Amino acid sequence: MEWALPQFWPLVVAGGFVVGLLVGLTGVGAGSLTTPFLISIIGINPIVAVGTDLLFACITKASSAWHHHRLSNVNYRILGWLAAGSLPAAAAVFIWLSWSGLDTAILAFYIRRILAAALIVSALAIAAFPLLVRGSAAPTAAPTDDGLTPAGDTFAHTQPRPLPTVALGLLIGATVALTSVGAGAIGVVVLTALYPALAVRRLVGTDIVHAIPLTLMAGLGHFSLGHVDMALLATLLAGSVPGIAIGSRLTGAMPDWALRVTLACVLFLAAYTLLA
Questions:
Q1: Number of domains the chain contains
Q2: Cα atoms in the 13 Å half-sphere on the side-chain side of 119
Q3: Which one, of 117, 129, 264, 267, lies nearest residue 187 by Cα?
Q4: In this structure, is residue 224 part of a structural domain?
Q5: What is the pTM of this model?
Q6: Planar angle of CA 49, 213, 47, nearest 5 degrees
Q7: Which domain does 265 fall in, by range?
Q8: 229 three-state secondary structure
Q9: Where does 37-133 have alpha helices with state H?
């Protein structure tokens, strides 16, 4: 079924609002929730849903990037090694898509199944995240009023682990390019295992900023292949912008565990609808 703007735009705006609200509350959900929503509820072709959602995720994550940068929550050395793996991996996926001549119906079939697997992994990662960070992140000093990290913060002395970080980037880049899922929940959880000395806000900030160039490049790659619906993207953003604003202000109103359980259940349900 093709998307019809007059018929479905209220539902798309509402879906964008819900996704934006969850992103504002938890920092994740832009890719994990939007793509299955577009495929299963709106009826978008899977490859177009992935391409459109990648640009949508880029814009939603960019809305919080400056905040994390100002508070020194981004480790650019780690980010650089992540990007060294993720950007070439995403580029390789697009070269394969453009040269393989794979039938779009066959590609859509496999995307649904790869996406379902990525959603299940994301749901498990979101549920396991508190267990991984409990007691593992060393306390760090709060940033000063000018956003700079005080001397002695372990954040300033954390050394990147190039090989495993690049390997993680390769995995995330390929997964994101194919499904639009992976740059959020999966990335943060694996970064937690690789860098247990970093505070949670540092891990989240680094992951969010890394996702911006990755989703932008992947989204533009899909756009060049004709896989992005700009009207659909604009309609999603019309709902997500106020959703993010409200969700950011409601952060802390609900217990973190309740938000994570809810989000994990939604991801499991999304995976089920894709496989049904």
A1: 1
A2: 29
A3: 129
A4: yes
A5: 0.77
A6: 15
A7: 9-138+160-275
A8: coil
A9: 46-70, 76-100, 104-133
**CA 230 from centroid of its chain's CA atoms:** 20
In a domain, 228, yes or no: yes
Digit-by-digit pLDDT tens for the chain (276 residues) are 445 455 778 899 998 898 888 777 666 666 677 888 888 888 888 889 989 999 998 888 887 777 778 878 889 999 999 999 999 999 998 888 888 776 666 777 778 788 788 778 877 877 777 666 665 544 444 444 444 444 444 454 567 889 999 999 998 898 888 888 777 767 777 887 788 777 777 877 888 889 899 999 999 998 988 889 999 999 999 998 888 888 767 766 667 677 677 777 877 877 777 776
17: number of CA atoms within 13 Å, CB side?
10
For residue 226, the 8-state DSSP code is T
Structure tokens at 14: 């509402």
Asked whether residue 3 is domain-assigned, the answer is no
Residue 144 lies in a domain: no
